Predict the structure.
Amino acid sequence: MTNVLSKIKRTAIPAVVAAATSLGVSAPAMAEWSPKKPIELIIMAGAGGGADQIARLLQGLIEKKKLSPRPVIPINKPGGSGAEALRYIQDKEGDDHTILVTLNSFYTTPVIQQGIGVDVSNFTPIGRMAIDNFLLWVNSGRDDITDLDSYVAAVKAAGTGWKVGGTGTGQEDSILTAMMEKEFGYDVTYIPFPGGGTVAKNLVGNHVDSTVNNPAEQNEFFRAGETKPLVQFTAERLPAYPDVPTANELGVNMEYYMQRSINGPPGMSKEAQDWYINLFKTLFDSEEWQTFCTDDGLACDQWLAGDDLGAYHTQQIALHKELIESVGATAITGE
Amino acid sequence: MEEILLHLAGGLTEAMQPLNFMMIVIGCALGLLIGAMPGLGSVNGVAILLPITFLVPPTSAIIFLAAIYYGAMYGGAISSITLGIPGASTAVATVFDGRPLAQAGQADRALTAAAVASFVGGTISVVLFTLFAPPLAAFALKFGPQEEFALMVLAFATFIGLGGDDIPKTVFSILIGLVLAAVGLDIISGQPRLIFGDIDGFLHGINFLVLAIGIYGIGEMLWTLETTQGEVVVHKVQVSVDRMKANFKDIKNYIMTTSLGSVLGYFVGTLPAAGATPASLMSYGLAKTFSKNPDSFGKGNVAGVAAPEAANNAASTGSMLPMITLGIPGSPTTAILLGGMIIWGLRPGPLLFSENPEFVWGLIGSLYIANFMTLVINLAFIPLFVKILTLPFTILAPIIYILCVVGGYAPTQTMHDVWLMLLFGVVGYLLRKLNYPVAPAVLAIVLGPLAERSLRQSLLASHGDMSVFVTRPISAVCIIIALLLVCYPMIQKFTRKGSRAVAAGQG
């Protein structure tokens, strides 16, 4: 029965789909495919960072709403700026029970680390959950730094003694750091830590001088008055930070975003892909997810799935290749 | 102070609510079971049971998960002692002396020591947590990469004395461990290294639990096969009220080690990224270094069971500190708890204490009660646990073998790790036959990645200048203590030899 239904569905007769929907049959129950064993949700970053928080929230929501007949197990594979996770997914070709939560190192790591032999354009795109933003942060104790100008002056004065904390070479923060180095003509020392949470902690403890963190990673320290944002790298000021100028406002053309998307290994079956698209669409539309986005300064107004997400990936891969070329891969790796 | 007591009273009342109390009892019992199953550590336990917590209010939910975490710390010791397979990575150090004690027919003594030490460790650390959470959180922030590295040096120093008098063999063992720890992707550049050509399984590094299960589970089995020559051996086990009394009198023999291990464990636990496994190993190393009778360690010294068990429970409480105050997990399990808190709508961070006091204090209150409950449950079941040992080896061996294979497969779910585990089993057996200490290698593979990361971060920041480790006060203190610890066994050995020589001369 379910087989027949899905065959009809695959020939895409809209009326049948509409009828099924109007009957109130939930989408995941419609599909012929459903997970046969626990689903591995691979996180290409360390515990406590933005990707990790999102993965665990999604896992929790799936369980809470009983959206999957089998449990979802989040697994951190943070090694080598996500290289470990990407290679793991690539090697899981054709597997329907492994999915990946991405950050932008999804695009950059395969370019910078040719040695791992990963091509993400072969991965199976599922859905884009959010767009994340970046701000430049310093410790609140730095009274000499109040805005971008005083920041640049302080960095130039310190030279390579200026330490920028980040999550790893090729990660978003290292790209933004390289972009800033090029723009302002200075050279800093970039120190990688496992996960954005640890980066934030090291800024609070004054072990690094500045960081480029997502709102979610710094927000609690900001609220506690431990750290302060100087600039946001967005098109418009985020509602959560109405007093912090964007780089564009200051006459510096610098915008950068990070996508949070779900992807499967190469060669995932179409049925499984559809099942996951339905699953994550349900999560995307949920009140809990939308609240989380608002609280954490994520943009979650546009849902992209399947081939649309694939096209978006293609465009982003090209953009990142260009970025890496313009700043030079060595500027990012610091070698 | 008064305010703290008031909050604590409130927290204890909260934890004694019927629902919360039930959560504690069920959580502890489940945790014990999860901890005792090799390969199924507190991480998996908490991850699997996280969804259940959506049915109850957040405070009850965290109490439940914390109780599981806690129970698992106790539970890990059970399989470490009775079967010789570490139930969880945090209980590896418990095998060192727990297994020899069990083979000598003193499993009940070891299990009692483990339970009591866990209780003491848990209690001391929760008291520290209650009284000094904010200043300790501030202290943890002072720990940058330089301090972390100095602490790792200190940890290695405690293990130089571990291998007994044969220091070259100990150093060799540590180096083997460090090489194994380097397998995988380079932590700074992300390039693959030491992956034996291009074997995918090595890309994620060598899982420490796989090594420990292989060496202790399989290696031990091979060793027993050789020593018994296939004869059927049944361990003698006695359980009686008199023995129980004797076991409790025994406490005075390890109470010092336990207290030391508790404070150390709590402290190491509060540092983000360290966690209970390094804490338990460091505590063991320290206990041995300062023991009057260091040679008896590894051969069945009850203090060698108490030290790591006190430390791992203390560290599990400690690792909740950075989770609550900084929003950074101190261990893999607290990373999952952190995820849970976000789902329940709580924001861990510096403001949680002031914004959600009933949640934080409810959790602290529950830790006191969970500690006591786990002790009671554990002691009650000791007679049952030691019964496992009365099984003849011919029945026990296949069970151990199966548990080892499952335990090797579970963490990453690849056959690669199972083969590796079996290989380490043979290597472990050979090392033992050649009289190489394996504990230092186990320590090195746990601490190696942490030490490497912090060393490279420090040197990046200082542009290669090594003096940063001695110019910063906290790291300088750690380095000096480390140097003293390295010299201590040598001096001890020298003076002992000296006195022996004098005695011989007189005789």
User: Anything to note?
Assistant: Chain B has one domain: 2-506. The CA atoms of residues 120 and 171 of chain B lie 33 Å apart.
